Amino acid sequence: MSRIKSNSIIPGFNLSMGITIFYISFIILLPLISIAVVTSGITWQGFLDTVLDSRIMAGYKVSFFCSFIAAAVNCLFGTMLAWVLVRYEFPGKGIIDGLIELPFAIPTAVAGISLASLYSPTGFIGQIFDPFGIKIAYSQIGITIALIFVTIPFVVRTVEPVLKNMDPVFEEAAYTLGASRFMIFRQIILPELVPSLLLGGGLAFARAIGEYGSVIFIAGNMPYKSEIVPLLIMVKLQQFNYAEATSIAIIMLLFSFLIMFAINSLQVYQQRIVQGGTK
Amino acid sequence: MGKKSPVKYFLIALSSIFVFVMLIMPLAVILSEAFKNGFSAYANVLSDSFTLHALQLTLFATFAAVVCNTVFGLFAAWALTRFHYKRSKILTTIIDIPFAISPVIAGLIFSLTFGRIGWAQPILNYFHLKIVFAVTGIVLVTIFVTLPFIARTVMPVLHARGTEEEEAAALMGAGGFTIFRKITFPHIKWALLYGIILCTARAMGEFGAVSVISGHLRGKTDTLPLLVEILYNDFKMADAFAVSTILVLLALVLLILKNIVEYKWHSAKE
User: Fold this and answer.
1) What is the domain extent for residue A141?
2) Where, if anywhere, are coiled coils annotated (chain A) (predicted)?
3) pLDDT, tens digit, 9 for 90 and up, residues B238-255
4) What is the CATH number of the domain that holds A111?
5) Contact indicator for A34, B118 with CB cutoff of 8 Å
6) Residue A212 and residue B72: Cβ atoms within 8 Å?
7) Would the CB atoms of B30 and A213 count as touching at under 8 Å?
């Protein structure tokens, strides 16, 4: 297996590698370099003034806070959904299973206007909460709900294969030794799920941080209260303020790459668990 | 362990409620809002020339992105899994970048490159090309945001299979295309279809990136999701939901196809 490329007798290395490198250079690297080109024209002071501006800082807080809550909620419900889909048989299971990826199929703008009308004070769900003084749409609760919607599939689909491959002998042993259901779940099942929960939660968080379409309709976009970072970039772009838009984007990119790095490490770990279970 | 218990029914009930509130209700709202003003109003919106133009543009951009990324995905999967090339890991990481960054930033980097202040602008002017605020830009950002889907669904399948069969075929003198068609393709066809479905779904619904690059020229650079936004912001709610139903229909077809392909793929494995 440790053959180096020149020794491989499979044809097509130069052609396929050439096309791959050309394509990702043109589509990904070339546009990304522009960030550096534009940044070179920004002074350090200007950069700091932009990213430390109180309205932008408030945006970061809203984005991180809502994304974190959304990922946490999905960890909880995602694990439950995965558990129900793997362990139980019941009528309608196929429908639930088939609908899990709906948020990936529905365009984000469509999800956005649908959620906004559902949770607005006159909407079907919004009017239930309105008399209690709870405003869902046009607040951070609304942002969080939109983010929960778009990231539902991540945790379910990362936890599911791990639950499927789990050897039941340990649970059975614990059961015969008198452990309660809750103890079995907490001490035997949950520790096995932690890496995949982190991976699924991380993927959900990464997606939520960058999400735009589904959030802007329900958010209300009030400065300091319900503005997310991608919206702030959009606002700067609409003012043709490319330098400030780029400055905010750099901070976002930094976080995105950090999360991506963490996810990549977790993915290697997850693959080992999933493949190790089947053999 | 298989004993029935209240816990089981509680969890099933809670899951069903979650799915109903979070997934089915948003879907139902779109339909009920779309037909609020009656069927003829609905039909009027759908036969409007702006709607038809947006549909056409969405289908075109989606088709272009899927074709380009399928070709790329197959070459990339071949290059990165059939050979033991030490930089494969770096290239794979680069392919993942569009998944990691916000769609708005995706749009931003394209307008920083090809837009008014872009460093590539003089080159484009020389060839009389326009990318930002034009269909070309919409296609390019759609390609960008959906780039990883096909490559990243095909690659694990090829990776897990090893390279022995292709090596044997090459030893016996088969050419590259013959090896791909007769040996590699039958193994990856379901993964490829799966990737194409995911890529299509994302491409037709892309909003943030397209929104930055399109300039919202009505009847020119408006895709369906952008038209939905314009109508909604004009307080033409019923119209926005009517246009949405086209996308919902496409999404549901893709979702069903995805489930069928997944099922076939799993049975092919066993």
Assistant:
1) 45-278
2) none
3) 999 999 999 999 999 999
4) 1.10.3720.10
5) yes
6) no
7) no
The CA distance from A135 to B213, in Å, is 33
Neighbours of A142 (CB within 10 A): 24
Domain range holding B14? 1-34
Contacts made by residues B169-178, CB under 8 angstroms, sequence distance 24+: B170/A9, B170/A10, B170/A11, B171/A9, B175/A11, B176/A10, B176/A11, B176/A12, B176/A15
What does the pLDDT read at residue B72?
97
| A211 dihedral zone (left: phi>0; alpha: psi -120 to 50; beta) | beta
Determine the Cα angle at B2 with ends A279 and B5, to 5°: 140
- pLDDT tens for B131-165 read 888 999 999 999 999 999 999 999 999 988 888 89
Q: Is residue A36 part of a domain?
A: no
Residue B147 belongs to a domain with what CATH number? Answer: 1.10.3720.10
Rounded to the nearest angstrom, the minimum Cα separation between A27 and chain B is: 6
What pTM value is reported for the model? 0.92
ipTM of predicted complex: 0.92
Q: pLDDT, tens digit, for every residue of A135-170?
A: 888 899 999 999 999 999 999 999 999 999 888 888
Rounded to a whole number, what is the distance in Å from the CA of B15 to chain A's nearest CA? 6
Q: Look up residue A124 and give its amino acid.
A: F
Amino acid identity, residue A62? V
